[in-house]
Records
---
Amino acid sequence: MSGRVGLALLKAEIGKVWARPILEITVALMAVMATFLVQPITKIVSHSNFSVLIQSIMAENVSSVVSSLMLPLVVMCAVLMSLSFAKDYESGLMQSILSAPVSRKMLFTVKFFAVVLPLALLTWIFTTFFVGLTFYSSPWLVLQLSLFALPVAFLFLMFCGSIGALVALVVKRTIPAVLTAFLVNFALWFPTTIITEVAFKEGAFYANYLCLTPYNGALVFLDKSLGIVPKISSEFADALEISLSAVDFGALLIVYVSILMVPLFVYFWRRFEICE
Amino acid sequence: MRINATRLGLILVIIGAILLFTVWTAPVIQFSKTQLAPVESGGTFAYGLFMAPVGLGNIVFDGEVLKVIPGSSGPMFVDVAVPMHVVVVSPSGVVLVDTETVTPCSFKVDFAERGEYVVSVTNMGDEEYSIPVAVEFPKDASIVYREADKFLVSLILTVSGVVLLCLGLITSLFLRKRKKLAKQIRTGNP
């Protein structure tokens, strides 16, 4: 019974969150970022190493598509999550839903996954489409490699969504919550634009810890899962980005998500004052 | 989330139009001369060219040998004429070039498919030489190189999106009109 209610609620929430023109705007932003940043690929290599090299180029292509999609994903996830929580609270819809036999746990989960799941699926679809456009001669390999984008996108979107929900539950007003969530996530995304090698060469104190930031960590996790060697010269061989494994970065992402999401979930379930 | 024909059409138009714009404005592909290994006398080396279907281009071969030139700081590559046998095979296995020639030389090849073009060079000289390969496209302002397959996909997406969008709009207009008519009949208002 509760499962059926949950599914109905999820369907209604997805319909509300992704109503026109949100889906269209998201698709347009993702298409712009993916097409402009992914250049045509043409190479001259040794025939004997061709399949190995093409596989590595394909993996790099998957990585660059996901990294170019990260900004629109982070922006949309933060905005939609805070909009979903804060707008419903402000308009009184949250109070109305909770007066029906719907638990707070279910409402939180439904609201969260109504934003994160479609965005993670869109990431995977866009990655497969744009990598497949160039490498359609090896469709299984494209599917296999682009599948790595799904868990990575899911994890960083969970983190991003948690920030959006946290801001919405604290601020409780739609416009300030959306703006704050957008700015916080943009600030956290910004370190992904810094090239670790350059930071190391300039002697920046933070160079070694760049890969530990949430969004950089997600990209390094994807690269390591795809078998892409970090582009850091051998003189910085003891850098964390080289010495830590894909499992370490995956665990780090799960820790980031848990640190934010579990207390937020418990707070919403036990403490959050709905009828303020 | 209800995805009707209008929304699906609009999404397809957005993706198709952005892709079309990117493919249309893509720069002419530039290759630098690539040499991967010296080819010994009588030996064969095979290059793999990963190419997009961009149309006619020239595969250019040079012959080089590493020599110490008096006055220079170290050994340098010097251009030499190397007799060689060239075979170029398209991704679908069609032999495009199969000839004996002397470097420097070039062959016009129609890059009609995406994939690996295998270029095999056999050194028929009596010494070990490097036989670098490059792909050149004429830098004529009137020539525009586009990746034909991506261009086709973007056209299909845009056209099908426009068709779906128009169909959806017409259907919704028709349905709205029918609803209005039914309401008029029900209420008896003219």
---
Amino acid sequence: MIAVLIAELAVVGAGPAGVSGALEAASHGVRVALVDRGDRTGGQLLKQTHKFFGWHRKSAGTRGILIARQFEGEVRSDPNVTFLSGTEALGYYDDGVLLLESPGGIDRLHCDRLLVATGASERMLVFPGNDLPGVYGAGAVQTLMNVHGVRPGRSVLMIGSGNIGLIVSYQLAQAGVEVAAVVEALPAIGGYAVHASKIRRLGIPILTRHTIKEAYGKDQVEGAVIWELDGKWVGIPGTERDLDVDVVCLATGLTPLAEILWQAGAEIKYIPELGGFVPLYNQDMETTAKGVFVAGDVAGIEEASTAMAAGRLAGLCAARSLGKVADGEFKDLHESISTELAELRAGPTGEKILKGLAQIWSGTEVGA
Amino acid sequence: MVECFQRIPCDPCHYSCRSGAIKEFKDINDVPEVDWEKCTGCGVCVAACPGLAVFVMDETASASECLVAMPHEFSPLPREGDTVDLLDREGVALTRGMVERVIPGRKPAGTPVVWVRAPKEYSLTVRGLCLTKEGD
């Protein structure tokens, strides 16, 4: 039997963006149903044992896992938020119905507004042997180690020197796993210098202009060959190096999990600076599908502090559209959160994001 | 010594210092600046930095030695009196040194800080440690 549930705002994804959005909307009196296919709130925060950057007043210096714990407490104690754990959103329909699946079966959630905060997942890389057991996404390795306490293997080749590749390499070393090398196709390290310094101090080589040629092994990864790239991204014969690794970890970027937005009919655009196919949205975080809001990595790959701020903005605007926020208060809060986002994106690390966002807002008033 | 040279949005170092020795940020992306007159060498910033980029060097330890404080997030932690390999920024062992002091991370999950005693000429290069293997 299909159960029918009702909420004013449904939030899909209980990571930093979704939880922030749910709590913000709830604070204005909105009845929120927060949905996540995991057992707990927190999203990517649940496996982030490293310390946050950003503002001192906003969790800088705190480890992601502790922020996840704080969120869990806040969600549990908020009378306006119902957390539907172990529940996957299957689709969103014209009549304002969000179809949900959980071990108990299929449910229909009738909601007046929807906030999609489904985040992102690892981009797959094409190379011979990429289907061998032992080839993981970096996020999967992080979950395996930091949530379940399981080492992925003995020695790892990390592909990608963005923050995720650098941080997961550090966490592998903390777990006693060797990192044979980090390879980066670009001529420069992608992530923060301080993350790179941390792993260099451990003697982990970071090889720029290098990539994987192939992974090999009978039933699982037994080794991998890396090589240098020329100016046209082509491997240079003769530069091959055979590494004795049993794990190949892909950290070549995240791409938004926007399926439900495609299905809901929101307009989507391919914007490389934001990680791939992202929904178009306005200053109020609303997509072209009426009543559907977005926040977090699904709207553009960034990081946790911007996810939390964007989540709050989306939650605020959803609450406003339900008539729950007075003009003056809305204007003040909208301005303060938008300023926060602008400040986070003001440095060199925000340049790429701003370029991407400009393509979302082209034709409309340029935002924060 | 705040080895943070890239503009990224991050500011907890300023707030961690009791003496106001790390200057206030006008823009959160600014690179930290130390006021050497105010720094007492206490090392609280070493534990506070999310990037593990802060180190303290105390050159007054003795005529030939210095003390270097570094963040160390590995188990097991070294113990006071242990002899350890002292590593440079590329993880290469420079010399051996003794662990002077180990300050466990502040609960619930703070970063431990290890003070090591090293020959003075290494104060600018010693940035890591490695427990020596049994029998070394």
